[in-house]
Amino acid sequence: MARRPSIGYRQAMAPNVRAVEVEEFPAWVDQMYRTFFQPTAEGLAQHYVETIDRTRMLGAFEGAAVVATLRSDLQELTVPGGGVLAASGLTNVTVAPSHRRRGLLTEMATRELDAAKDRGEACSTLIAAEYPIYGRFGYGPATTSVRYEVATGGLRFTRPSTGRLELVDPVRFLEVAPGIYDQFRRAQPGSIDRNEVWWEVVTGQRSIAGRPQVQGTQAVFYGAAGELAGYVRYEGKPQTSDLRHHGTVVVHELVALGAEAYRALWGFVAELDLAVMVEAPMRPTDELLPLLLHDARKVTVAGSHDHLWLRPLDVEAMLEARRYQVAGQLVIEVHDPSGYADGRFELDGSPEGASCKRTPRSAELEASVGALGAAYLGGHRWTDLEHAGWVRELVPGAAARADLLFGTLRAPWCSTWF
Ligand SMILES: CC(C)(COP(=O)(O)OP(=O)(O)OC[C@H]1O[C@@H](n2cnc3c(N)ncnc32)[C@H](O)[C@@H]1OP(=O)(O)O)[C@@H](O)C(=O)NCCC(=O)NCCS
């Protein structure tokens, strides 16, 4: 099967794209940080040597100079119904300004997607620095991240909270939070697993290049039976004039296992003294907080952006891994110029299980591979994608039927940067 992109892609020119040796890490890290306008520091390369998988890493070399970078991590992606998929999480993608628009990204991304397909990973994921970059490689925007602002002056919850909150130090937090998150992410479509390094960095137990990265304060929630059921990581940004306080509390992360934990954790951050505003920058589209308040207008959507992009590689594995809202069948023709996901697939899905296989039957829906990526987790409706021209309906009503099948109770959400 021809996998490499065949339409409109340029081949890499002079620079040599290849795996990266340990002694080349400093140059690789320098290239990446420089392109992201970040200062490098001594010890940074060592952090990468210790923490990343060198077998999933590429560099473009011109002599000893590194002019482009890309790597991936193996991820577990939760899909609707609670199943997980092996995904290749693409990250650290940079091309030196002196070498851009010469096909280096195309060359590296193609190699990475070939490798992911060969490794048996069902899809590739990423967070796009700029929206227009990755559609051409078959990625579709699959989850949305919303920034909420909550005006806390006079804010009242309609019901009191139960349970108990406890401020904890980073060591205790590191003991309990990964387990809470793991339970949460297994039920939240669009979320991914986090490794030990991720947790060590956010709790300040691992410094990068001599700099601890810990941010703010942590609290954990215990439910009525004394069970751990949530946590919040937050940071106060004080602002005072004439002893009048108008500080902001930034919620880095709020994870709740259930309604009690959710109400208590939001109540806790909303009622912190010396602040008049809570800013929560990376939240789901279907945040329930307004419904818990006497005055829902205290909560505003201050911004939003596409977050997780998804690039299908193995359509059968993907469609069989998830569960569907209702029982039904659908034949989808997927167009993938790179070949990985190209073909006509018959889905037989239900809330209990699914089968998907290639079929000679006529298609009811025709979708670009990126459109399938956008619709797969339930983050975009098939009917919307049909209106937008990403999907073509070959049988009237097929997109609406697909919406019934692919709909999810809760919006897909990825709360992790990578
Ligand atoms: C984004 C970046 C990696 C692109 O690398 P590159 O080697 O220049 O990309 P390519 O030459 O392979 O480009 C392939 C195609 O994508 C297009 N493209 C690349 N970057 C683009 C962008 N930022 N916006 C719109 N189109 C883009 C190119 O124009 C080209 O299209 P064409 O073949 O129709 O001319 C590079 O510009 C960069 O490092 N930017 C800063 C860091 C960054 O944004 N990284 C992405 C992190 S997610």
Structure description:
With 418 residues, the protein is an alpha+beta fold. Among the domains are: 146-306, Aminopeptidase; 309-406, 2-Layer Sandwich (Nonspecific Lipid-transfer Protein, Chain A). Helices cover 24% and strands 33% of the residues. It is built from 10 helices and 23 strands. The protein has helices at residues 25-35, 44-51, 104-118, 170-185, 196-202, 259-270, 315-321, 369-376, 382-388, 398-406, and strands at 16-18, 57-62, 65-78, 84-95, 123-126, 140-141, 144-151, 164-168, 207-208, 211-212, 217-222, 228-237, 240-241, 244-245, 247-256, 275-283, 299-306, 309-312, 328-335, 343-349, 354-358, 365-368, 391-393. The strands form 5 sheets. Strands 1-2-3-4-5-18-6 form a 7-stranded mixed β-sheet. A 7-stranded mixed β-sheet has the order 8-11-12-15-16-7-17, with helices on both faces. Bound molecules: coenzyme A. Coenzyme A is lined by residues 8, 10, 35, 93-95, 100-106, 128-130, 132-133, 136.
